[in-house]
Amino acid sequence: MNWLLLMLIIPFAGAGVLALYGGRERAPEVNSAFSFATFIAAAMLTSKVIADGPLYALERQFFIDPLNVFLVTLTAFVAWTTSLFSGPYMRIESDHGKMTPRRMRLYHSMYQLFTCAMLLALTTNNMGLLWVAMEGATLATVLLVSIYRTAASLEAAWKYFILCGVGIAQALFGTILLYLAADRVIGAGTGALLWTNLEQVKTHMEPTILSLAFVFLLVGYGTKVGLVPLHNWLPDAHAEGPTPISAVLSGLLLNVALYAVLRCKVLVDGALQNHMAGNMMIGFGLLSVLIAAFFLSRQKDVKRMFAYSSIEHMGLITFAFGIGGPIANFAGLLHMTVHSLIKSAIFFAVGHAVQKAGTQTMSRITGLLSISPTVGWGLMLGSLAILGMPPFGVFASEFLILTTAMRELPWATPLLLLALGVAFAAVFQRVQPMVFGETTAKPLQHPPALIPVFMHLGLGLMLGLYIPPYLVAWYQQAARMIGG
Amino acid sequence: MLVVLTVWLAIGTFGVLALHRFALVAKVFFPMGAAASLVLCVAAASAMGGAAEVAELPFGLPGLNFHLRLDSLSALFLMVLGGVTTGVSLFAAGYFRKGEGTPPGLLCLQYHLFLASMALVVLADDAYVFMVMWETMALSSFFLVTANHRIAEIRQAGYLYLLLAHVGAIAILLCFGVLQANSGDYTFNNMRAQHLSPFWASIAFLLALFGFGAKAGILPLHVWLPEAHPAAPSPVSALMSGVMLKTAVYGLLRVTFDLLSVQLWWWGVLLLSVGLLTALFGVVFSAVQVDMKRLLAYSSIENIGLIMVGMGLSLLFYAYHMSALAALALAAALYHVASHAAFKSLLFVCTGSVLHATGERNLGRLGGLIRYTPWVAWLSLIGALASAGLPPLGGFVSEWLLLQSFLFTPGLPNSFLNMLIPVVAAAIALIAALAGYTMVKFFGVIFLGRPREEKLAQAHDAGTLEKIGMLWLVAISILLGLMPSQILKAISPVIKQLSLFDLSPSIAANAWWLLAPISVARASYGPVIFLLGVAASCTLAYILVRLFYHGRLRRSAPWDCGYPLQNARMQDTAEGFGQPIRQIFEPFFRMERELPSPFDAQPRYRVLVEDPLWYWLYLPIARWVERISQWVGMLQKGRIAVYLLYSFLTLVALLLMAKQ
Amino acid sequence: MNQYGMLSQLLDVVMALLLAPLLTGWLNQWRALLQNRSAPDLIQPYKVLHKLFFKESVIADHASPLFRMVPYLVFGCMTLASAIIPMLSTDLPLAPAADAIALVGLFAIARTFISLAAMDIGTAFGSLGARREMLIGFLAEPALLTVLFTSSLITRSTSLTSMVTSMSHNSFAIYPSLAFAGIAFVMVSLAENARIPVDNPATHLELTMIHEALILEYSGRHLALMEWAASLKLFAYSCIGLAIFFPWGVSTSASPLALMMALPVLVVKLAIGGALVAVIETLSAKMRIFRVPEFLATAFMLAVMGMLVHFLLGA
Amino acid sequence: MPNLVGQLINLLASILLILSFAMLSQRRILSLIRLFTFQGVTLVAATILLGYSTNQPHLYYSAALTQVLKVMVIPTLLHRLINHLNVRWDTETLINIPTTMMIGIILVIFSFNLAAPISSLSTSIARSTLGIALACVLLSFMMMITRAKAVPQVIGFLSMENGLFFSATAAVYGMPMVVELGIALDVLMGILILGVFMFQIRERFDSLDISHLEKLKED
């Protein structure tokens, strides 16, 4: 059985089924079931990769290599846990009258479609299809962001749509240029867009074209990554959409976009034989970390704040890949993994906290620990983890990034020190009174699904202390592949 | 060693399982933890001087397991840790009460995690495990500090603490980044092998100084200390002050003496001056405090300053290859590490008992407790005397050694330094004397005189476990005071390891009761004889007075100077006791005073002494951050056209860049 | 160490204990003389001590054991101090137990306990005295240490006996640094021993008293011990000063003959010193309590200057 | 013959550019839609011409797809949309038209300059039009920036898509078919979603003026 195709088909089928029956009472469970099936397929796929190594499917149109295998598993996993969280969460939202059965239908269907698009983007070998899948993921999430139909959510979705649409159009132009360059070496046809083929001939491709192509691709996919100054859609979309969507946006979509950038970077580095791509990424990364840190220190809305935190972390990862080299790349990949685990866990906790307090304004959420210790500890530990407190995995990657930067780019380290300090001060100052102190929140009708929170935190903790050897092997191979 | 750590972690886990079963946690788990501490202390002592033991745990980053290494330096700090925590854990067993903040089981987890992480920091042999444990230590202690998180000040204190700890940790991390010299190998062994240029070595040193300084509380990174210590439960304050600050000392020692292959003389001068300023600042502020735990916190700052002075001096000598003197100064610093750990944790647990007995931290509402809580009072008297640096207790030995190392300065090759060092010695003398002042205030105002509040008469003495804990710490303090030559001989492997000079022959050359690090003719100190001398003359005087005269005694009301309306509130207050210091060191403080006028119907006097650094340094930084984030906020004004313009301009700019 | 050493040690202590009140009496005589008063008896202090020992001791109702303990402790400290200061001979078996720094520590213990005892009663005067005493202490102590540092830098030792030995056996040399140190030492001694201009040992005026405020609550044998300890302190300070600045005449061996020689020399030196103190006391006026820190800070500065001069001039 | 085709294609490219400029300066929504349709027609013509001259059948499919989507479906949808929403009125731009045009000219020069080295590398007979395609993309971008209403912004977006399509066709004779189909699907989905969206926006704000969409910001 071809697990890869199965993994893509299940969510697609799920989207269809849920488009019809997604408004029913048990739909959240069905949604989770589909996600779980996807995850099982992904897990089987992974185990096969562990056993047999990289593999291809459908005439090399799809492939699994060390760079995407862990992302695939991660995506399927987080999509599944988020669907677990989303069940009770959306039920409560319906009880509050924010969701109707029709909207539930749309929500569940788009959720599956979004998963499908992301998995497609990750597994496709075709740079053109990658673009299509990214666009598809955008469209699906636009609908998800606007699902409450409030003024704010519409505005957020509109901005999201326009900004990402324009961005992704740039990426298409970049892809065309890439094709143009490949055309000269490989010849026209589908083969010229296959990443594996491009990778083999990367040193022969025309540097002038590829440097321009990379600019378009970077600006295009970078918009989706949320790099400053292309990030403006991100906080709005995170804050106004349903929390499960914020979780997958932050945890998965940003990763996938960054993954696309990485794929392009490999080709460009091969063609250019200089550090242009890396330098641009360093610039974007630093700018994102710095600006996001200062943005963090002026937030009032909890989801918005964690959205900026995602920008900060994406900046850090981009910075790491910009530096390049085995250690920084390794750290970047690790950071991608851990960030998506932890950040989605935070959003789960935040989601319930917001429901309990009835507001997203942080100053009005207090004392979570006294009303629900699990939500409180989840939020507290998650925030500390995302701020780079060991023994969570974020620290491990920050450790590697900073120590490498200290010798590779010493001038950047004071900026990073400043940004991390400001970010810590900002986030922690706001999270602490939310968790500690006297409470104003009330209990919920449905028991919150907090197992995912601690599952994610547990994994994040594990990655800080122990990384499974095959994961290490993937990271190392991928890091070598990314080069730098 | 690892067994002890595992036991601690296991206790912590059990604690979580028994989340709300208070009796089990307090009466079983904490004493078990104390027993483990004792084992740790003994194990460390046996490892002292032996060959370094290495272990690798299958955790950590790929290619970088957790490397642990137990050498003499680690063993020394583990001994301090084990010794102090034995007492503090016993005390804690009796201290924690039901129903305050964090559930007891969780507290138990955090507490033992804190202990284990401190031990692992000291044992770490690669940068990663060091950093992980360093931050775990900060984190677990943060949760302990904020155990009673319903109080806003405590949250604020915890916040400040964790923030500074984190920023410091990043600096340490960057320091390791320099040390690994781009080799990608984070083991300490590799770092030792790297030869850094003086420039990079200096960067590493400065980063280490900043990072460890933030934890140790050197000026101007001390601000968290006087906030966090009062906020924390007393056993936790005791551990933080007594042990955790020492891990920062350990880190600085490890980096400068062990990992760095180059030492520059100006590092020593820098450390010396920073230490001196810190000590002076700490003691002056400590003298004017009215909150007993804040007073102790500032006193900790002072002592850390003294330790830094010793280290700085040692570094200076070391850089000039005067290893004998370097060894002496280092001995002073290390001795102070141990003695401060003992007496400061003792004092903190004593304040804990006072707090439990009275519910009061403000010196202005205490007094006369020696009559109600004699155990606590007499035991803390020992602590206070040690803290004041009086012979024959532990604090004096280290001050004595420190002053000796100053006085034995033979001409350094730098005439400026030759002038500087005696002045520093004089300043140290001043600091020591001020510490005495502070401790008289501390002890006198809390325990002596008449109770300033009615309710103090109901104060109860410490419980059995608490008493045992305190007695243990007192025993350590006394031992450190009376057995300096034994102890120095025991820790001489550490000194040898760092300064490459062995003090033990010159110590061993004398009788066991005599401490003479160079020779008897130059300087010597025999605390046992000293104590016996005083005790003998006291006893003799007592016996002779009884023999020749009598022992008749009559009690009556004290003399009121003809003013019968005097009451307990008219005793000198803590503010009053600090008044001369406020006057003499006025430029140090930022004061708000409210003086009564002669015409006031109800005269009020109020004085608020604040840390000026807060206003000179921290608030401006906060303001700048706020201002920058205002500017940054302008970037995002909600207009989609502007956002598109950003993308457009970015695109154009990058295209221009790519074209070149 | 030999039996002569033990003998000299014993002699040292006993002589200090016996002569200390005499020095106080001598000083009072001189003061009276200089102030045109008729002087009390030279042995008046002995009479006072005897009378006090004989009297019943009255203590406050709520005085703690600490309060009763302190006189003995202070007395013990002063006794030990006089045991380690080379007064007659430098061959003192106890001397290695405490060098100059430990000696200052010893004085500090005494001061600390006196202050604590004063605070124990909980009257306004006691704590006021304690505060003032500690104020003087924290300024005087570093100054005294610095003075001792200067001489120990010259003699390259902090052991008092070695200092005296090397000072008295060096060929006669003028140390400008010691001049500074000497002035500082005199100022510190005046302050520490509650003499004018810092304190007036003869009044009980609330606004100015320091030492008397501390021992206000003591009576009977306790007061006697305190007074005796105060005389001992004055004696010890004088001997330190003599040992450091005028070490000639102190015997370096413990042979009875040498000790016999040293005793008259010491008595003469003390007599001159006591008279000089009386002269200073008469010439200067009691200063306001707020000026005391300035006075002591000056002493401290002078001492530091002395040390710097030592480094500058190498002498 | 190839020469003539090349010239024709260059002509069509110039028409595209002129249309882009026209759209940049056009205030009326109806005219904008009309111009957009013309753009589509021009694209179709260029694609067919290229397909014919290079004998690449897949370009015909591509042309057909464009015809259906960009000449027929999308303009119809847009027409119905503005009829429903009743927004035929003039739109005001955020920057005045002459300034916009000036900037537009600078952009054109810039993109020619940028594309020149690449065009010389391409084997396509339409290679010299790459600069024009890039200019179209950037001009549409510009248009999106300067418009204050939702519908013109969307048209700008679609016109950018046209520019991209043209560049793909001109430079590399179109993308592989799978990709082409995917892109078309995405565009269609996008426009549908946009339509739904605009109704919702209209419903919420009683206007399609995007200045209403400025509530989410840092304050």
TrEMBL record, chain A:
Pfam families: Proton_antipo_M. The lineage of its organism: Bacteria, Pseudomonadati, Pseudomonadota, Betaproteobacteria, Neisseriales. It comes from the Bacteria. The chain crosses the membrane at residues 6-23, 30-51, 63-85, 106-123, 129-148, 160-182, 209-230, 242-262, 277-296, 305-327, 366-389, 409-428, 449-467. The keyword Transmembrane applies. One of its GO terms (cellular component) is plasma membrane. It is a multi-pass membrane protein. InterPro entries: ComplexI-like_HydComp, NADH_UbQ_OxRdtase, ND/Mrp_TM. Keywords: Cell membrane, Membrane, Oxidoreductase, Transmembrane, Transmembrane helix. Residues 125-413 form the NADH:quinone oxidoreductase/Mrp antiporter transmembrane domain. GO terms for molecular function: NADH dehydrogenase (ubiquinone) activity; oxidoreductase activity. GO terms for biological process: ATP synthesis coupled electron transport. It is found in: Cell membrane; Membrane. This is Hydrogenase-4 component F.
Automatic annotation (TrEMBL), chain B:
Residues 124-406 form the NADH:quinone oxidoreductase/Mrp antiporter transmembrane domain. The chain crosses the membrane at residues 28-52, 73-96, 127-147, 159-179, 199-224, 236-253, 265-288, 295-320, 326-355, 375-396, 416-449, 470-488, 528-549, 640-658. Keywords: Cell membrane, Lyase, Membrane, Oxidoreductase, Transmembrane, Transmembrane helix. It is found in: Cell membrane; Membrane. The keyword Oxidoreductase applies. GO terms for cellular component: plasma membrane. GO terms for molecular function: lyase activity; NADH dehydrogenase (ubiquinone) activity; oxidoreductase activity. It is a multi-pass membrane protein. GO terms for biological process: ATP synthesis coupled electron transport. InterPro entries: ComplexI-like_HydComp (IPR052175), NADH_UbQ_OxRdtase (IPR003918), ND/Mrp_TM (IPR001750). NCBIfam families: PRK06521.1 (NF005086). This is Formate hydrogenlyase subunit 3/Multisubunit Na+/H+ antiporter, MnhD subunit. It comes from Pseudogulbenkiania subflava DSM 22618. The lineage of its organism: Bacteria, Pseudomonadati, Pseudomonadota, Betaproteobacteria, Neisseriales.
From TrEMBL, chain C:
Keywords: Lyase, Membrane, Transmembrane, Transmembrane helix. GO terms for molecular function: lyase activity. The chain crosses the membrane at residues 6-27, 69-88, 100-122, 134-154, 174-191, 234-251, 257-280, 292-313. Pfam families: NADHdh. It is a multi-pass membrane protein. Its main location: membrane. It is found in: Membrane. This is Formate hydrogenlyase subunit 4. It comes from Pseudogulbenkiania subflava DSM 22618.
TrEMBL record, chain D:
It comes from Pseudogulbenkiania subflava DSM 22618. Its main location: membrane. The keyword Cell membrane applies. It is found in: Cell membrane. The lineage of its organism: Bacteria, Pseudomonadati, Pseudomonadota, Betaproteobacteria, Neisseriales. The chain crosses the membrane at residues 6-25, 32-53, 94-118, 124-142, 181-199. Keywords: Cell membrane, Membrane, Transmembrane, Transmembrane helix. GO terms for cellular component: plasma membrane. It is a multi-pass membrane protein. This is Hydrogenase-4 component E.
